[in-house]
Design brief:
single chain, 587 residues, mainly alpha, Serine Threonine Protein Phosphatase 5, Tetratricopeptide repeat, 31 helices, 71% helix, 0% strand, Sel1-like, Ycf3, signal
Amino acid sequence: MNFQKKALLTVVAAGLFGSLQAVAQDAQSGVKDLEAGRYTKALQTFQSLATSAPSAENFFYLGYAQLKSGNPDAAKEAFDKGAAADPKNQLNNVGLGAVALAKKDRATAKTLIDNALKETKNKNIDVLLRAGEAYTMFKDAGMNDPAEALRILTIADERDKKNENADIEMALGDAYSLKNDGGNAVTKYENALSIRPNDAEAKYKIGNTFLRGKNYAEAQKFYAQAIEADPEFAPTYEDLAEAFFGSRAYKNASKNMDLYIQKSQTTDVDKLLRSAQFDFLAGDNLKAIQKLDQLKGKVNNPVIQRIYGWAYSGSGKYNEAIESLNTFIKTAPEKVIYDDYKYLGRAYGQLGTPEGDSLALVNLEKAAPLDTTENLYREIGKTLQGAKKYDAAALAWQKAIALDTGKATTNDYFQLGMSNYLLGSRVGRDSTMMMNGDTAAIREAKEKYYAAADSAFLKVNQITPDWSPGYYFRASANYFSDTKGAMATGEPVPLYEKYLEVSDKEIAADAAKKEANKRYMMTAYKFLSSYYANKNDAVKSKEYLTKAAELDPNDKDVQNALNPPAPQPAAKPAAKPAAKKPVKATK
């Protein structure tokens, strides 16, 4: 916020003690601190000036600083004193209107501001400017009126016949910004720059327009220009941090939030908590915890427990994380977001207990539908597979793929395929999947799961055609699902052959993969040899047996098939034992 020089001259004239030059310098210093977001320092300056030179203008600036720092009651007290000091000066009545807006009392605000404009006959540019600014000061609906701001500021703009007042252009830009009219907002800020070249605040506000549109790169560009124009303009660093946060450059977000705190000297708890959050996201959990420890006893905001929980989770203090996050969720349920459940779930998952694993899944499943950054269904699927809950795992992988189909990975489809493949292998064998002994139901279930596996593995082949496991497991799914008999139909044959072709290429590129692929290759060789033997193609059958023998010379089944043992001569029948002569009876 830039302030009019005329007001400063009035302050000078109103000085009651000390040199006029010192009073003017103090006022200019206070204005500069207020512009740069150093509200605490500005408040100290204006409080001192209001005490030493109790003019309407000094009370106005004191009230304005109180309002900007979020203390409307203190602002009202200053504005009331300013109005009493000079009833004809309407700036403080406009300030009282702004206080009413801060309390969402728009009717009172309009009455006060309209009366101030009426008393000055819409001719005082300062009053018009402050009236327009009052209607744009707050972002929450019910606390602003951009249409009324534009009406008043247009009158001020018309009064500025020489087009010398950059503050009017800035305020018009703010009004358009509240209307979400970014084009006109930028135009007005650019007009301000034409009057006041290289103005940091104008460049900063252009950056804000791009930030609201989530054009983070363009926002960062204008924030950089604002910092170059005035490195001490603190608000730029806060919003630059948010722009880096939006583009997930968390280390830069943390760094610039620290600069904002340093330059603004803010004690605002919400800003300090946000800074700790950025530290956590940047991976500096210790720094985040240290900041939170400094706020202990000073913060009546349950969000501190959230950030403690996140930071503890990231630093491996899982019991502390669970305690903090459960406390937060219990005390502030209306503020809970999916990240709270995500970090709580991860902390439970690290406990290594059945109860912890169960609670991990419960919380991750609460977070997953809303988390588009990490796709937690992958994490859920992996956890369920580890617990051998393949039916639930398959559902999780389906959701992972559905959540972001365009970016679904080879692993997503492969794990979906494996979940169904392992389900198929359990049908008729696992006590929970016996289908009451109904062989037809068992056959149908096997076909269903293996068909689902085949479909998923086909996607793996399409996405990553040079990765052999996709072909091997697709071939195996076809083998096990073939109720007519794979040897008769030969459905797995081209898939096993493709697997061996791709596997050979992998080994040629990396000899270390030979041992990793050996088991699957032997299965493929043996199946193909048996298939071609069944088709009376002895040449093909022997070709695959030979390759199997080269891969594993110690495989007895392969060696016996290649070199069947010589038939043993038939054993002669054993000679019958000679009949014993009957023993004579003796008397």
